[in-house]
Amino acid sequence: MKWKFKVLDFAAFFLALSVLVSFSLYAYQEREGEPLVHIKGAEEWYYPLDEVRSLSVSGPLGTTEVEIREGHAAVVSSDCPGQICVHQGEIHRPGELIACLPNQVLIVIEAEEGSGELDGFSY
Amino acid sequence: MVSLTDSVIKRGSEEDRLDIIAILAALSMFLAALEYCIPKPVPFMRLGLANLSLLIGLGLLNYKNYVMLLLTKVFVQGLITGSLFSYVILFSFLGTLGAGSFMYLLKVIFKEHISLVGVSIMGALVNNLIQLALAGLIVFGPGVLFLGPPFILVGLCSSIFLGLFANKFVEKSKWIRKVSKSCL
């Protein structure tokens, strides 16, 4: 089979690969500072990961139960049809997130201000 | 009804090109439906199968008609995924338009020096980066940084295979040969 590869194909490939690698390095770098669980539902909360907590987050479809224990945050139950948020498991690293899009609940782990590369967010 | 094998539509006419756009849009609708059937462990991992129509159309259409193809692809993909009337369609719209135009530009500038594989890789990269940037700004904030790399990786792999297939198809297909005599 005759391969119709041109020089620029490899250039494109290596360009894409380098974008991927640099993005990964940036995204997965270790961040200092205390990670916080940022929960956005009908109301907004910030909690640390060290204490065991159970939260009921309200949204348009009902209640999403979030639990923080042993340094992890997870969705225990939710009133949404897909239950994707429940199956997401546990998160604990800054940048990780669980979202219940139907119930409009968002749980993100964020590094404390001033410690990472980010000075602010926009929503 | 128009048949592919014997057409009463005048070759090179506007209807002829609309015909091609329609066929390719139908193809992307089929591919979007196919992709919808594939079970995904994570909701965001998109294979981008529907982009095959865009790759095939690159050699057949002028820019104006190509943009029409891009728009129909967005519409049709939105229909299949059920996101047509949600804000998500904005991501698809901007991503596809930006990436599609970029692919067209690449093809125009580099002509024979790049094959559909390279174009596909670049198109997927631009599309994914645009969508990640928009998701980061509008929906998720910095959380996209975590999702980003696997998203781009999946796009890279699937775009390579898609490009290989498109290359072979354009090379071998009798339909392409018949239809490209009249286009552009």
Can you describe what's shown?
- The complex is a heterodimer of chains A (123) and B (184).
- Helices cover 20% and strands 37% of the residues of chain A.
- Chain A has helices spanning 7-27, 84-87; strands at residues 35-40, 44-48, 53-59, 62-69, 72-78, 90-91, 97-100, 105-111.
- In chain A, strands 2-1-8-7 form a 4-stranded antiparallel beta sheet, with no helix packed on it.
- The radius of gyration of chain A is 19 Å and the shape is elongated.
- The N and C termini of chain A lie far apart (50 Å).
- Chain B has 184 residues and is mostly helical.
- Chain B has 7 helices and no strands.
- Chain B has helices spanning 14-37, 51-58, 63-81, 88-110, 116-140, 144-172, 174-180.
- The longest helix of chain B has 29 residues, at 144-172.
- Chain B is globular, with a radius of gyration of 17 Å.
- Classes of the chains: A alpha+beta (123), B mainly alpha (184).
> From the helix content, strand content and strand pairing of chain A, which structural class follows?
alpha+beta
Oligomer: heterodimer
Tally of DSSP helical segments of chain B? 7
Give Rg of chain B in angstroms: 17 Å
Sum up the overall morphology of chain A in one term: elongated
